[in-house]
Specification:
With 464 residues, the chain is α/β, with parallel strands linked by helices. It is 36% helix and 10% strand. The protein has helices spanning 12-15, 37-44, 49-59, 109-114, 135-143, 151-161, 176-189, 207-220, 237-245, 255-264, 281-286, 290-299, 315-324, 358-368, 381-393, 407-418, 452-459, and strands at residues 166-169, 200-203, 228-231, 250-253, 275-278, 305-309, 329-332, 374-377, 398-401, 424-427, 442-445. The protein is globular, with a radius of gyration of 24 Å. The protein starts with 11 loop residues before the first helix and ends in a 5-residue tail after the last helix. Keywords: ATP-binding, Helicase, Hydrolase, Nucleotide-binding.
Length: 464
């Protein structure tokens, strides 16, 4: 044992907390990362969309029912199909619980040789005590209301604590962030504190996902002295540069912004890095970050531990795995193409002659059937903004989330939706995977996703 190591006994104040402190904390607090959207509009002397909608509603002349003409009956020329205009088909198949299993490698000798065997990996644990975590981390889990590890946490944490490289796959809402954060924090808890350095780098494809991961790590590390830094676009570069120079233990970043700092800041480097985590790796490669990812991997020490999480194993991800991981264990807690057991899928069919009424059908569904805690994936930024205006003029409380907004406005949209200040979040693919807000009841894909994986991962919001 290190002679400089001292054990600090817990005080009675730490042992016994008031009933108010025992209520579970929320891991997400998007408002703490920037000023509010209202303050940004005041600083820029601009008018928000909500203010414009309110003014339009106030100035709109009242319309009586007698002024509305009855619509004429239209002939239906849809190939003699006598079905109703809107047929709801409840999705079947795959309704049982998904089989939890560890996959030791792909079919083929080369893949089997590359991946380490996963014998002994268990996807079940009764409590976090069984995972050999330190007391401050157990206390943080209790404060967050975490009682029993999820399958991906039970499998990933022991292997990560042993220093193994991991290639994992799990659905949104399965506890993947805590699965890699807890073993990282456990290792950092016993780090040499006299030698500061950036020891963990976590890369995510989207700014909002980085904010969420950073918030989770801050909550899990709240009873330790481990420091975490957020480095993403849209926020102050000078503040981030100062934070990096202070040598935080963990850096959560998007590839583009961390590369900028590494290239332009002399005192910032990755020489002391011990763990590299690639979250949503398939999306990282989709969002034109491939060059930055490969550059960052070459900047990291070769003796590091690497954990990669990806919903789909594309050819590009497979190349990245072979480039960055060393004899990894492959874990698959939830097959990426399986439906969650608690998910109900429905299809609303609109006839070919009435596709122009698609927005009206959506508005009717959101006014009468799905009235709160709803996420609508619009497909494009223009469609998201248009739907935000339509919902506002119809008197529905909605927020929009897409790439045309400033970072302050994007975080504000997530925060007001999390606090239930609005009933609808209209978003593009920027929120389709990774983000996990508790309490979402309904997910509506206004534009059909391009592939089955995107559909499943956007739908996983409904059971988080």
């Amino acid at each position: 044992m290190d002679p400089d190591f001292h054990f600090d006994a817990a005080s009675s104040e730490d042992e016994y907390e008031s009933e108010e402190d025992l209520s579970p904390q929320s891991p997400w607090d998007f408002a703490s990362y920037s000023k509010s959207a209202a303050e940004e509009h005041a600083d820029r002397n601009t008018t928000s969309v909500d203010a414009k909608i309110s003014r339009a509603l106030r100035d709109r002349p009242a319309v009586s029912l007698s002024d509305i003409d009855e619509p004429e009956e239209e002939e239906d020329d849809d190939d003699g199909d006598d079905e109703e205009e809107e047929d709801r088909v409840i999705g079947g198949g795959g309704a049982g619980s998904a089989n939890k299993k560890a996959v030791g490698g792909s079919v083929g000798g080369a893949a089997r040789d590359f991946f380490a065997p996963s014998e002994g990996a268990s996807f079940y644990a009764n409590s976090f005590l069984e995972l050999n975590l330190s007391r401050p981390l157990l206390r943080a889990c209790e404060a967050l209301g975490y009682q029993k590890p999820t399958p991906i946490q039970a499998a990933c944490i022991p292997l990560a604590l042993a220093g193994r490289d991991i290639c994992g796959s799990a659905l949104t809402g399965s506890g993947k962030t805590a699965a890699f954060a807890l073993p990282v924090l456990e290792r950092l808890y016993f780090r040499p504190k006299r030698i500061p350095g950036i020891r963990v780098l976590i890369l995510t494809p989207a700014r909002e996902l980085a904010v969420q991961v950073h918030g989770m790590i801050e909550k899990l590390a709240q009873f330790t002295d481990i420091r975490c830094c957020l480095v993403v676009g849209g926020l102050s570069t000078k503040v981030q540069e100062a934070a990096l120079r202070s040598m935080p233990d963990i850096v959560v970043a998007t590839p583009g912004r961390i590369i900028d700092h590494l290239r332009n800041s002399v005192s910032v480097g990755l020489e002391d890095l011990a763990v590299l985590i690639l979250d949503e790796a398939d999306r990282l490669l989709e969002t034109s970050f491939s060059g930055e990812i490969h550059e960052l991997i070459h900047l990291c020490p070769k003796g590091r531990q690497t954990m990669l999480f990806s919903a789909t194993m594309t050819e590009e991800v497979d190349k990245l795995v072979k480039l960055s991981l060393n004899k990894p264990v492959r874990l698959q807690a939830d097959p990426s193409t399986k439906r969650p057991a608690t998910l109900t899928e429905e299809v609303v069919r609109i006839r070919r002659m009435r596709e122009v009424n698609q927005e009206a059908v959506l508005l009717a569904l959101c006014s009468k059937t799905f009235t709160k805690e709803v996420i609508v994936f619009s497909g494009t930024k223009q469609a998201a903004h248009r739907l935000k205006i339509i919902f506002g003029l119809a008197g529905l409380r909605a927020a929009e989330l897409h790439g045309n907004l400033t970072q302050v406005q994007r975080l504000d949209a997530l925060e007001v939706f999390r606090k239930h200040e609005v009933d609808f979040l209209i978003a593009t693919d920027v929120a389709a995977r990774g983000l996990d807000i508790i309490g979402v009841q309904t997910v509506i894909n206004f534009a059909c996703p391009r592939d089955i994986t995107r559909l499943l991962h956007s739908s996983c919001w409904s059971y988080c």
